[in-house]
Amino acid sequence: MAMHPDQLADFEILRRLGAGGMAEVFLAKKRGAEGTYKLLVVKRVLPAHGSSRRFRSMFVEEAHLATRLNHPNIVQVYEFSDHGDDGLLLSMEYVEGFDLGKIMSTARRTGARIPPFVAAYIVSEAAKGLHYAHERKDEGGVPLAIVHRDISPQNILVSYEGAVKIADFGIASANLFREEAGVLKGKFGYMSPEQARGERVDRRGDIYALGVVLYEMLTLRSPYGKLDDDALLEAVKTGAFQPPSTHVGEVPPELESIVLKAMRGPREHRFQTARDMSAAIMRTLLAKQELVDSASIEAMLLELFGRELELPLASPREAPEAATLAAVPLARTPSEGTNGEKHTRVAREVRHVAVVTLRIDGTVDLENAHGKQAARRMGASIRQTLDDIAFKRGAVWSWESPWSARAVVGLMANPSRAAADAATLAIDVHEALDGASEDLPAPLRASIGIVRGIASGERDPQGHLVRHTLQEPADLLADRVGAATPFGTTWVAGGVYRLVRREFRWGEAPSLTLGDTGGLRVPAQMRLYALDRLLTREERTAELALGQSDLVGRDAEKADLYAAYHRAVSPPLGGVPGSPPSSEAFGAQESPSGPRTQTFDAAPMSRRAFGELVARVVVGEMGIGKTALVSTFLSELPGGVLVVQVECSPVKMELPLATVADVVRDVTGMGLDNSLDEAQGALREVFGPFARTPSAPREIQRLAELVTGKHGDHQEEDASNYRHDLVVQGIRHLLAGLGRRQPIVVVVDGLQWADRASLELLKELLRRPEPLPILVVLVTRADERVLPYVEGLVRIELRGLEPKEQVRLVEARLGVREGVAAVCSELVPRVAGNPFFLLEMVDALLERGTLEIVERGEGVHELVRHERPGERNEALPSTLEQLIGDRLRELPLAEHDVVDWLAAAGGPLTETDILALARLPDDEAITRLCARGLCDRRAGSVDFRHPLARDVAYLALDTAKRSRMHLSLGEHLSRTPLARGLSAAIVARHLARGEAAVPAAEMYLEAAGAARATHQEQLALRYYLRALSLLPPEDARRMNAHAALEAIYRHLGRRSERRKHLEALRKLARQSGKARGVALALVRTARLDCDDGHLARGLPVAQRATEIARLARQPALEVEAYTILAEILGDLGDVQGAIDACERALEVTHTAKLQPRLRAEVLRSKGVLLRRIGRVEEAAEAHAEAIAVFRAVGARRSEARAKNALAYAMFVMERFEDAIALGLSSIGIDLAIGGRFQIAKTLSNVGQAYARLGDTERGLSYLKRAREAHERYADQDSRADTLLCSAEILLELGMNAEASTMCGDAGALVAVTGSAYDTVHERIVRALLARAEGRPHEAVVHAQAARKLAEPQGLLSYHIHATAIEAAARVDAGEHHTGVLLARTALGAIEATSFSEYGIEVRALCIEALRKGASSGARDALLRAATHVRKVAGYVREGRLRALFLRRPVVERILSEADGSDVSPRSDPLRRGEMA
């Protein structure tokens, strides 16, 4: 026999009844009110599945639905609760008897038959319960559309007394639990065809299943025979079966007709309601004169099971009397009896309770229609249902007659719910009687009266009040109200009404004259209220908001807000009403991605006048009434105003722009659950015409990333200033788009908790005047952290209330005037004018019963303080913290659980999250906390109304419980959208505090990846480092974190940190031995060697990286390795090998279908190589294609690098002005995104271009900045080239000594790096230096060496330039013949080459050599050179730069010699001679 626990929560387990697919079932005993206990069934999710979200979800659905159902033919469900280690528990009515499956199997085994009309009666009773469930509505009268979806013999129970009940609405579907088409639940053989096909089902599917049950009871076989699951499912889908009479000829044709109609394929042809089916059966029984009732069922069971019905319960612990379904008195324990050896001192307690009186009408008609015996049976069944309903509400009906009773609610451990439970009990009783009356000849109606009373008794260890007595006048008032209440209604006395008035809908009731009261001190009249129904969730929220809107003593402050609003929406003085803002007014400035945009007028805005952006700061201490002031102001705004309201949370203080993101979410309705595309679509709609501004796409994308927590395909780490510009511009356009339609009021509450980035953005927005009808209200405490950001804004400071104002506040809150001043005289000195403290104290004293609102007659109520003799007078709290702590300690368990979870969360939680974490069946506890004023509901989330309550609640948690709760929070939130993107850091912090190091690290890695992808390096660094601190040393994910940190530090130019994480990466790769890790480490090592100029060392590393990446099947790493290899080979002089590496990389990107960005990176590298070997146009095309890709994917740093590469290609093509423009654009991107790595190379290229244009001063300035950048960022890439280019310009200016120093420094670097490219360049510069200093033979040596090195490497420009230098030097040395030959060779090569950065310099050197060597071709060469110079000059568009270019010595010399005259500074040599 399976073992079972002895106790589950407060249930004493008697025996295990069985187990189903998702839960196990026990027979149990539970304590009830007034010293009673009840036998019941407890269902628990199987321990093996307790952690499954799917099983928990199904269990909660069953509980929610089943507790709403009160009908004699439905198994009563009492409560649903979560008891931690004991699991999810559902308690329900214990039905002693059998299910239909057992009954049918016994009949088959014994060869018996179930009497057909008894079978029909059983199905008819089940149909009544089904119809009731199908017709069930919510509090607002909206049908719940409940469908059982699992009607089968096992779920229809028959008691020994003949009662029929439907059980297990375990997979029921209602409107509040949406189902998806295509999902099958239930048992195949009892499914309707539409359910088997996975279509949506309705009540007619249950009717079909009920028809199958009747078919089986009549024939004792399935309509589909014995088929396996697949065949059975197909048969059910088609609805193919034989009529019952095919198998049992004795089946009455009338019943067969009912079966066939219930089981028709098209649902339109079946019974349309279960009631119709029940009525058809009852008509058949009447026509056949078959008198079938519960006694007939009882007789059938006795015949089938015989002595089994008389067997005692199996467990020896179970007393025979435990078989009863009614609550019975508990046996006394020794401590309670007079014969016990030990007497325990019991605590006496006095508490408020609710007394409910019940009378039922319609019984005479029932007896007349069915006879007294049948009426008694029906009455017993109805009373049992009403007993079960009372048990759910912690009460017991004391039946004074078969149709009248009384109950006391509030005797259980949670007396604060007494009034609400009593009212709910009354509603359930009316609803149950209505359901039972549908099949009766006359309706049963209840008269219910509810009054408040005081009960005294003993408090047991569980908090129940036992052996209680009611203090007068409770009995008197209960009798009088109960007798006066009309049938069909519930009348409630004022004491109960005031406690629950905001939870229910009420009607009018007359005042009750009490008459003779036997000398008891009661008013002559009682004010009564007619209870209608529970409020819907929406109605309750509105009621709570209305009840919290009392505002006293803040007229001046409210007037300040009104004045600010009118200023915001009024046209400015001197302005023109109706003139709309244009895009010039809203951000038509130089954007991060381009220059100033043109003005854009939004025509639709011209129909309304515009005011100005106005800001106010509401400042005050906690609880002083800031939120109440703003709420009242907002509630009184005119219609048509858009209110955007967000509340900052301390849990989000670390997340950049979290507050701004909440504003955008409120405006767009988008959130973490939405996709980027959805958010961008919503933003474009809000932007309106401003979505067409040039910068809008980037702004919308950035805002969408903030809202959704997701990021696009960004690969760059843009810096904060670029992100900041995009967000500022985007918010301005967002507000402009909104403001063109209607006035806006933006409220940011709890500004002291805002993140710094949001504070900075708000400061920038509010400092600049805008022609927008917008009022921004910032609500904050006087926090030093916030004050600098609101400095200069108009402040509305709230002070404490005056004593008279405090009295008025309490009067307004309670709706009572009498006695308030007297009570407040003791409270006011303690609260220092703080309204929150005052109201909290009053509420606490009301809940304790120390204060009470009593009725003095004629509708007059008074607030009184009770001084009960013999009771301890509790001291009033002296601090707000003490008061809040007292209030929290007195909360009922469910509400205390909610408070604890909110405290541990550190910020708001969604209602769904709270219900899941606290394991609550509904939101009742949340609603009660909001009604108490401790919490607020806002946009689907719940949080403390005041942060101090969170602090007090959190400090009250012991360390172990905190850790457990943080762990549970982290585990729960990790399954929500909060675990994606930057907000994953919030989840990580909970997991870390819950000592779940590895899951916390996973969340930090997620947040770090999001921060990196959204260009927030510092945040990414922080999260990666936290992840590393949590991950164990051997965890493979450390490798990814180190790799990311190495890449970030490379970008930031922080060389030592980069090396540190690269070394850690290499160590992990060696330890893991996995190919991917090794390949990654090799690629990063090769990249570092390349960046540092250690080319010879990096070459074998890069080659090995390509091989390992290929073996590891990591195509992205393979491409990166080939790209680095190409760079190294190119610098080492193996240009063809480098190009081959690029081609291989491009092949891999194509084969593996990698991201276009990777292909673009390869194209950029290939373009550099093509340019070096003279294929400049191909190089430019490659660079242009790469730039287009980088721009499309938002890879801005790579775009900057590609633009620099294209700039140098333009430089080679001698389009120097275009080279400068591209270089400056590249630098602009670098500055915007905070990129500093390789910026030196761009600065150098811009400097060279300026020098070639003749602006040597600016050129040298850029080159100086380039050299400084190399030094500052330890950037060795192209450092030697920058020094050599600087030396060339200095030589042109005749500054030989400075040039010599630069050349020497470059030589030292080249000796270390071994770069063939730089080696050739160095030789060329040394040749120029030697010639300038009159050492022609040395010049020849250097030039010849450069020429011989350049030729095999394909460095065409360097080869031609070196040849020209050698030619001039040989002529200088007297070697005229050789010099002339070399000059002609160089001249022919330069003219045959499409482009070269030395086009002018080579021609000048060759002309000089030819002229000195007396060559006849010197004049023609000069004229051709002049033509080339004029062509280059034609590329220069800016007049200043063109003038400087023409005054450049080498240019001026060529043009003047070609013209045969000197060039005047005033003349334009381009006009003398033909332009090319």
TrEMBL record:
One of its GO terms (cellular component) is cytoplasm. Residues 590-600 have a biased composition (Polar residues). It is found in: Membrane. This is Protein kinase domain-containing protein. Pfam families: AAA_16 (PF13191), Pkinase (PF00069). The keyword Disulfide bond does not apply. Residues 572-602 are annotated as: Disordered. SMART domains: TPR. InterPro entries: AAA_16, Kinase-like_dom_sf, Nucleotide_cyclase, P-loop_NTPase, Prot_kinase_dom, Protein_kinase_ATP_BS, TPR-like_helical_dom_sf, TPR_rpt. The keyword ATP-binding applies.
